[in-house]
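Example with several molecule types.
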Amino acid sequence: MTLLHRLRFAARPFVTRSLRGPRGRRAVALAVVFAMCSGLAGLWIALGSGHLEHGVRRKLGLEPSMHERESDEFMVFCHDDVDCRRIERDLEDTGEGFAMRLDGIALAQDAVATYGPVVPAEHAPLYGRARAALDGRAATTGATPRRRGFDWRDADQRALLGKVLDADFRPAVVRYASPLGLPDGIALVGFFAAAALVVLGTVVGPVMVGISFAQEAHENTLQPVAGTALSPRAIALGLMAGALAPVAIVAVPQLAIAVLAAIVFGNPLALAGFVALLVACAWALACLCAVVGLYAGRRRGPGLVGMALLAGAGTWALAGTSLGFQALGRVEAALMTMLPSAGLVLAVREAFLGGAEFRHGALAIGPEWRLFAAAVGSIVVGGLALLAAERRIPGRIAAPLRRIEAVFGSAVLSALTLLAFSEERPTWVVLATLAMMVMPMQFLVMGRVPQGDTPGVRPPVDVARLLGEFAAFVALHLVLALVILGPRFVAPLLPATAHLGWALGVAALASLRSVAAPMRLPATLWAGFSFVAAIVTFTTGVAIVTEHGHAPMFALMPLSPWLGAVQIALTVAIPVTLVRAMFRPRAG
Amino acid sequence: MRVELHGLGKSYDGARWALRGVDLSIPSGSILGLIGPNGAGKSTALRMVATLLEPTEGTVAFDGVVPTSPDAHQSLRRRIGFLGDGNPLYKHLTPREYLRFFGQCFGLPERELGGAIAEILTTFSLESKAETPAGELSKGMRQRLLIGRCLLHRPELLILDEPADGLDPRGRSDLRRVLDDVRRRGVTVVISSHILRELDDLCDQVAILQRGRLVVAGPVAEIIERHEVARFVYELRMLPQGAEHAADVLARHRVLVESSGMVEGLAALNVQLQQDEAKMAEVLADLFAHGVKVVTCSRVRSRLEDVYDRISDDHVN
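Resulting structure tokens for the full complex:
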């Protein structure tokens, strides 16, 4: 059986179930409505002449502000007949139009004042016209023109002066209209279609997958499915396909619109990159949501799980959108590698709105490579999440991840994180990337804890071995840092070894504790407190590094000896209590 | 399909055994009843036979072959119908949609699926409810649907964990009819229950589990025969006149009266002796001597429940 046949076999029951009865027709109707919405929204924003449309175009960098356009083209915008008549009157009186006249006069006065021998002779006629115009007009009364200087070498300023003189200092009153044409409108339609794809692929789709898995776990309905001819992987993939089928139906017209728009008036190559990254991100998020749904769904209802996932995916997408619209500097570019949603926004901008702005010149590692790295990271994360999900299908009592898989995941994510920030100072990079990698390492080591599907029965946990594996993740990160950054970070980090080691060890123990033994409220609070203590100690370690070993060993000791004693006691008590909890006799 | 369990054991936590050392052979085409109190390890055993749970030790062989790879398990599951405990059901699917879903999960071609679904709906009297969401069906109907789902792909081995749970008397009768039909098709059936009367006359073989251990296994008649050797129960029917002396005579011979009543106008007593037929002959002679007019005396065959009570130290339903 080919891979395609296997996928079809796995997806068939779940997709049929998902689109049964009127559900398929409803999805098609929704797809048509959404496609029309994208088309109308794009054309409306591109061609509309209202303040809202203008504001959106400005935010997207498609149009300068009205004031800039008025200044550059020596005209005053009006929005309707009444407005136009009012401004015409103002030009003769005081007010907005009058101020514009004063600006024109000031420009001519500046031009005349700055004209001298260094100005090329070819501009003499323009100078002559300006001088004659100023001499020929009656002195203005009231306000004084705002003088801003004039550069005869600037072609734009010379052109503006020409316009001012042509209009005899009286700006034209023009009905405001969008500067964009139909081609820009079609590009904007593509932009909105691509934005809809981002929402569908990274928020709606994964959340639907998470809810679907949570529902199956909550109602234990996967148990009979596990007894069929479908393998656990086929069940996981099929369930994902079933949850994504309606979303895919809605997404297909949007994709078609985006592709057509990019081919006609955009950048098809950038769109191809966007689609590839979107698929990778959607894959990773869908698999992660599947795992969360399967694990959380046993104790929490699908509604609650769905809300939590929506909050998480929504935050992920919004944070990326905000970052993706910023001008790219080194840090933004590095964060973009960690937050692929920003890369998606960047790729959409590249495809339909023109390229991104760069701060501080070009980046050593271009954005396309960072997006590629983000896609690779997403694929790896998605693959590991799928493995964890399929091993949670009923009937298996095993660790969600094998050792080699966890080590591979840790190595790939460490390498990507280090490469993303490799343009910064090595010591800072190692500390920052270690901090960023703590949570992925925690999830990976939690994935190494054997899980059963019999309530109340927990397989034995080899804490020492799992701690060793966590230490191996950290060691691998440092080895990769040595390879990528060189050895310069080693000496500055040495004084903080104890702090960093304790913090990372407690982080590992707290995460192991949460999955290896029953968690009641006090245990949850204690694990949370332990993790906070780990963060504080890690921060102390960073302070020791930045202050070259001069920071106190126990941060609370300088405040009070008692507080210091408490901190020393907690330093011993936290790891001991976490380990002891995992060795207590397990309830049947 | 012939199923053989060799030293089968399962420990969920590495410390305690849910099931251990189970050796069992289930001939092809037979019905095996797995009996035991709650927590005896029946469901664990059945899930291992259904290839849904990996044994901690031992093997399960199907027609002499022990599947080892995941692919082997997958292809084997096409030949197995399994109804687990708990009986989860997609409440928003109609019976027709539910059966279609599982038919597709077993890879039934579309051209066969429609016919198979119609057959199951008919067999389990669900045609009138074919388009009703499963959540709105009665408990018995849901159970029939669940059992029907296990038969949809015509399995060679049918494993039913507590299938009579929730079934009313008619449903139980239907279940017997269906299982008889399944047996006639040569399907091997493994069925668990803690309600012994369900299995007594249905199974060819029984296996009794207690605390994760196999206590006894074999053909039903053989087990009953083997375990009633030391237990002689007779039914005596007497004319009502003179029957009042029977109790004194029986007490003198230390005979235990299990039950008494009137049957077809005759006084009936179920009595249990601690000794063999010679003792019964002696008791009968004494009864006649004391004017008790015994009409019939027949030995009562033990039921599975009696055997279970005898060999177990747990209470069962």
